[in-house]
Write a structure and sequence with these properties.
The chain has 352 residues and is an alpha+beta fold. The protein folds into three domains: 109 residues, Homing Intron 3 (I-Ppo) Encoded Endonuclease, Chain A; 107 residues, Alpha-Beta Complex (Homing Intron 3 (I-Ppo) Encoded Endonuclease, Chain A); 61 residues, no CATH class. The chain is 26% helix and 14% strand. It contains eleven helices and 14 strands. The strands form seven sheets. It has a two-stranded antiparallel sheet. Helix 10 crosses helix 11. The N and C termini lie far apart (62 Å).
């Protein structure tokens, strides 16, 4: 397979195509990092499949320092030396993300085009799939069982990104902890189809089937757990009843019995950011974004009402016109403006 399959100029495929290969220096650390991204056992054709980031046309990508290049080109250079200048690396196996050096050969750009035409890979040709031409299971990504919820659509890459965020090192019966992003209360979230989804709800839909109720409940009471054996779908009432039964509800978890009182580390209310926001340290004039103006400046601003527009006043004193609007209506604190004592005034100046 070629570096291009549409008969268009090869230089449109990768910005590194014209880089002189002798300038690419691969260290032992780079080589180890490179081969950690290759799966040699997944392809029935003996292809060595690149299992990480790919170019939009399906070719593996790898960066050496700050220089990006195509993975199959780097593999060829590692085994055969520098690529002659002006030559391209073609795939004999026609698998774009294959980096097996035995499946690679060098050719001129015209030979690349002839190979494209001969194999019917040109645009509209009989053997042009129009996308990636991954002729291996899941496009080189690990093969996971299909979701039991048929309405859940995930590409191989999305499924791989989801599964790799779950720590299953404790075994099948232990909590499988979500290691990715979480909500403020500790529940895992995962970006899918442009939206943030619940990691626990996805676990139910993948391994148990469709959600028969809107809430994902934990038998283990561990918000980060994504083990489908510990999860079940329930209604809002069932969620509230389960919370009360386990002593975590508003009626039973009172005072020293509250789980957050027993283990404060489980609560987002225990974080310093939350304590600081509730203590008044970041409200009003204590907010680091508050603008502090002397009384004389505030009086001068009010004296300009009707003479200058609010935008002109704001530009003069370095504040927004909305702040001026609030000041003219004496909403000083709501606008984040603090009056200072006469001793601290500096007429005609503004301190940020």
């Amino acid at each position: 397979m070629n570096d291009t399959h549409s008969g268009s100029a090869a230089t449109n495929v990768t910005p590194s195509a014209q880089v002189k290969p002798e300038l690419l220096v691969l260290t032992e650390k780079d080589a180890k990092r490179f081969w950690s991204k290759v799966d040699k056992d997944i392809s029935p054709k003996g292809c060595w499949i690149w299992s990480r980031g790919c170019h939009i046309r399906g070719y593996g990508k790898f960066s050496i320092g700050k220089r990006p290049d195509l993975a199959h080109r780097i593999s060829y250079m590692m085994h055969n030396g520098p690529i002659p200048e002006g030559m391209w690396v073609l795939h004999k196996c026609d698998i774009r993300n294959c980096v097996n050096p035995e499946h690679l050969r060098v050719a001129t750009p015209p030979e690349n085009v002839y190979d494209t035409l001969e194999k019917g890979r040109f645009k509209g040709g009989p053997n042009n799939d129009g996308v990636f031409m991954f002729e291996v299971p899941n496009g080189g990504y690990p093969a996971y069982p299909a979701p039991l919820d048929p309405s859940l659509v995930m590409t191989a890459r999305e499924r791989y990104n989801y599964e790799r965020k779950i720590d299953r090192s404790g075994g099948p019966d232990a909590c499988h902890l979500w290691t990715g992003s979480t909500q403020v209360r500790g529940y895992g979230i995962f970006g899918l189809h442009g939206k943030l989804r619940s990691a626990t709800q996805l676990a139910i839909r993948i391994y148990s089937g469709p959600m028969v109720a809107p809430y994902a409940l934990h038998r283990c009471d561990n918000p980060r757990c994504c083990n489908h054996r510990h999860l079940w779908a329930g209604t809002q009432k069932e969620n509230a009843d389960d919370r009360e039964e386990k002593g975590r509800g508003n009626r039973t978890a009172i005072g020293d019995k509250h789980p957050f009182r027993i283990d404060p580390s489980r609560s987002h209310f225990a974080t310093e950011a939350f304590k600081k926001s509730r203590s008044g340290l970041t409200s009003g004039a204590n907010n680091p974004n508050a603008i502090i103006l002397p009384d004389s400046v505030m009086d001068e601003i009010r004296s300009l009402e009707g003479i200058m527009t609010q935008r002109e006043i704001g530009d003069k004193f370095g504040i927004s016109d909305s702040t001026v609007w609030r000041m003219l209506r004496r909403n000083d604190w709501r606008s984040g403006v603090k009056r200072t004592s006469p001793s601290s005034e500096s007429a005609g100046s503004v301190a940020h």
